[in-house]
Amino acid sequence: MQGSKSDLLQGTLDLLILKAIALEPVHGYAIAQRIQQVSREALQVQQGSLYPALYRLEERGYVQAQWRESEQGRMAKYYSITKKGKKQLDSGRAQWERTAAAIASVLQAAE
Amino acid sequence: MRWLRPLLRRSAVEKEMDAELRLHFERMVEDLVEHGVVPDEARRRARLEFGGLGQVKDDAREARRAGYVEGFWRGLRMAWRALAKSPGFTAVAVVTLALGIGVNTIMFSLLDHLLLRNLPVRDPRQLVVLHGNFTTPPYMYRNTDRGLSFSWPEYADFRDKSTVFSGVAARFATDGSLEYHGAAEKVSVELVSGDYFDVLGVRPAVGRVLGPDDDRTEMGHPLVVLGYSYWQRRFGGDPGIVGRQVRLDGMPMTVVGVSAAGFHSVDRGQDDDVRVPMTMKRLLTPGWPELTQWKQAWLNIVARMKPGISIQQAQAGANVLYHQILSDEAAKLPPHYARRQEFLSDRLDLLPASGGMMDRTSDQKAFVEELMAISGVVLLIACVNLAGLLLARTAGRHRELAIRLALGAGRMGVVRLLLAENLLLSILGGGAGVLLAMAIGRPAARLLISPDAGPLLDSALDWRVLGFGLLLAALTAIAFCLAPAVQMRKMQLADVLKTESGATAGRAHVRLRKAMVMAQLGFCTWLVMGAGLFAKSLSHLKAVDLGFRKEHLITFQLDPQASGYKPERTIATYRRLIEALGGLPGVTAVASSDYGVLTGGVNLNVLQIEGYRLPASGAPYVRELVVSPGYMQALGMPLRTGRDFTAADIQKPPR
After folding, report:
1. Higher-confidence position of B11 and A82
2. Same domain, B316 and B174
3. pTM of the entire structure?
């Protein structure tokens, strides 16, 4: 997301991270890259928010981390989603969709 | 314990974080280079975008719970320094807490021993005590206060025919005289059925315990199992005592073993010194030697329910058997027996005995609970006192705290610092309190409960009591730090910094202090009233009319039979003693009785008066004391009518 980390709706970054690692284990830098690419450069995740968020998610048991060799042959810390994380992702997504729909309907009604 | 890892291997975690962030940084640079940026420029841009590495790491650390744990230790260290700076305050606070927590720890360990704790036996939850409700004749000796007792034939039926119990044991508490190496001593004796130890699952500490084969023939098993604390007290814990002979009520008996440490008695609050097979009853109760009288309901029965059976199921099953027993007994009742129907419809209750037998109407229980409540109030007062102290201390530190806030400490951080100080105080106070409890617990128990209560507390400090003490410490920390924390919330940084003294007494602050003073006053009033009532009861007890003149009265106890005197010789000894004492100058009267004055001992007997029918609700029991001629005169008991016994009333010596 452009600008400072406070622009990000609370909890949304966690959701984006969980989504980014939902398919396969990804390391930190690639998570940021992936979110940037998928959002067509609209969302940029600063490492200043990314790593605290990752550690927080790890502490809460939503993600787990493992050191292994990256495609470039260097050791990198790979994050993968846990069962608990998947549940969190699903409920978070549903919550987001409800909120977005609610906001959209309010905005449309105003016109 | 994943959260512990960062604490234990802090450098490793830091290294990991470094590596991860460095990789991120390098990948950023590489990407920029790939997009055609000169490496130096790429590095510069990446660094710009990356922001302060230290800040990132700080945030990341904060996100870990380890951050809290580390912060906790840092906080404790800071708190220690802060407390060390004011040793006077710290000492007062710790002593106040130590008293409050110490008293409560002692009370809890008493409460635990007397009321809460399970018996140290196998699966105590399976144990029940049998309880019959019918207390009047035909039964004799059935303890009317407890209604717990049964006859031996009844016990045998429960043991042999019950379908709901895996084991049934009987016991009877009495006392005797144990002689070893020429020194005799009065001991509490528990007559136990042979399966007693099996049913309870009590193991021997040394030697062996009794088994069913040790309880087959009458007077055929001169065996003794020592209780652990008696073994420690009398024999110094010498395992060599096993196999030796002692004399119990004059009879040589072999010590076969010592029961496990921690097991005192199935009767809560008692501590039986020795256990003897039930078949030795004649030795210990020579006045009523028969074991098998069906009318003598004298045994407590403890049963172990079969696994998986609920107490309701067991009760239903046991009652079926009980009614068979009752109808067998009813057949032996005289035909004119008036209360046959009531007798037949008596109900058997099973009382949970995981903690042993307990009086339903126990004075001791109420007493201990009351003491516990009082000591709780003492702790509350200590808390309020401490809260007041802390409030004053915090007020004095407003400026310091405000500076901390101004320097960027979070409000929560400052509250956490205060909390850490209080926690440290309560840990110190709690530790001192537990030490205090260890030091004075036993003397206090002797003073409060009875001189015999000391051995009950031989494991005075186990993990339960310790846990209780620590829990108390933690709760008090929370309780007495509430006040300063509430105050902190109201604190306005700018106001404090502006005033020179830094002490601003806000309105809320004053209200809080007033509330605390009120609470303290209330608690103290309550306590003083309680203490006053206790003192008054005590003075009432001293003034109570005993029915005899206690002035110039001297009593002592003597039991020649316990030292092996035959009955005839015993009587002769008493006679000689009474004569000799009566001849002493200054002695106006001498008499003897089978139970001493105010010892609480009496015989329960059934009194039937010819031509008189009891009202349906009345019990025909009388409390009987066997006395020598002149007893009334010796005690100064006024006679309403008639006369005292005289020597002429003795036609032949009693048995």
Report:
1. A82
2. yes
3. 0.56
